[in-house]
Amino acid sequence: MSSTTHPKILIYSQDGFGLGHLRRNLNICLQIKKRSPEASILIIADSPVAPFFKMPPKCDFVKIPTIVKVDTGVWRPDRLTMPYRELLTIRSEIIKNVALSFQPHIFMVDHMPHGALGELAMPLEFIKKHSPHTKIVLGIRDILGAPNVIHQQWQNEGAFAAADTYYDAINIYGCADVYDVISEYNFPPALVAKANYCGYVCREDSTEAPLTDKVLHDLFANDHRKFVLVTGGGGADASYFMDQFIDAVRLLRREVAFNAFVSTGPFMHKDQRGLLLNKARGLPIVVSRMGQDSIRFLRRADLVIS
Predict the structure, then answer these.
(1) Which residue ranges form the domains of the chain, and what is each CATH number?
(2) Are 88 and 117 in contact, with CB atoms under 8 Å apart?
């Protein structure tokens, strides 16, 4: 890369069901921008609410059709009525064309070396052939699942082979003394040589204004009580424990006086959210989708239930 060339980074972020991968990749973007403010970062995302979080400058995204994981190795289209194999072909073509057109200096792949059901195999092969200057880097969190299940799945689906064939480096978001990914998942020697523990990806200190007393006053009739935040991330599978929480508040309200804010997240079905709203009537509970990522509620809360 010449000194006059600003770096271009492409990120594959597969997260059709929640917000965790998208949040982590945007936090990585923020760290890249701190070190290289002129870098251009393009994220390939399949989250139905992408980008959801505030994007840093010179950062954009391409939305590909969403698929969701329903079981180990089992996926389905989220919105389009078509066989998932046909949709995977469409996704692969989009990823390949974006990568070859963008010509990134670095292609960062999140979580799955071969992509969902192997959809990255063809794009990675084309990148290696037609964009040889691109460094391909895999980023994985430390806890992927039960070690024996993950090892067998990676073996069966060709993930180990893809990581060996296409990747220049593997970044592990964790610490070996906390969880030794390499030994737990029985990485082959070729992958061990590429692996680096780079610590946990943390969120930067928020620049948002603190949650003020006025906000609590507007939300609750008695704003001097303890404040409880109930959150389930994206919210797709959070309705049951939120329902149980509302039942508990109804039982405990005479003994423990507190206000509660229930953040359902963007993925909870509208019918489930409606049931929670109806159930919370008459209680010191606010049920809200919370359409933005806000750390203010977490910082102000006396108790967080998640």
Answers:
(1) 8-197 (3.40.50.2000), 213-305 (3.40.50)
(2) yes
Pair of tokens at residue 264:
């359902």
d(CA 134, CA 236): 36
d(CA 6, CA 3): 8
- Residue 117 gets which letter from DSSP? G
Backbone angles phi, psi at 230, to 5 degrees: -115, 120
| Cα–Cα distance list, 72 to 46, 116, 149 (Å) | 19, 11, 9
pLDDT tens-place string over residues 161-216: 999 999 999 999 999 999 999 999 999 999 999 999 999 988 766 666 667 778 88
104, 126, 203 from 198: Cα distances, Å: 22, 28, 15
Reading the block at residue 273, the tokens are 């959210």
- Alpha helices, H only, 63-117: 84-102
Which of 174, 233, 230 is closest to 202 using CA atoms? 174
Please state, in angstroms and rounded to a whole number, the distance separating the CA atoms of residues 283 and 206: 31
Instruction: Name which of 167, 114, 161, 157 is nearest 137 in CA terms.
Output: 167
How confident is the model over 31-56, as pLDDT tens digits? 999 999 999 999 999 888 777 778 88
| Of 18, 17, 69, 15, residue with least CA distance to 43 | 15
Name the one residue in this structure whose structure tokens are 């296409």: 166
Q: Show the DSSP H helices in 116-269 as ranges.
A: 121-130, 147-157, 159-166, 181-184, 189-192, 213-219, 239-252
Contact present, 140 and 174 (Cβ < 8 Å)? no
Q: Which amino acid is at 302?
A: D
Residue 45 · residue 29 · CB < 8 Å: no
Q: How far apart are CA 14 and CA 140, in angstroms?
A: 12
> What are the residues facing 259 on neighbouring strands?
227
What's this model's pTM, rounded to 2 decimal places? Answer: 0.82
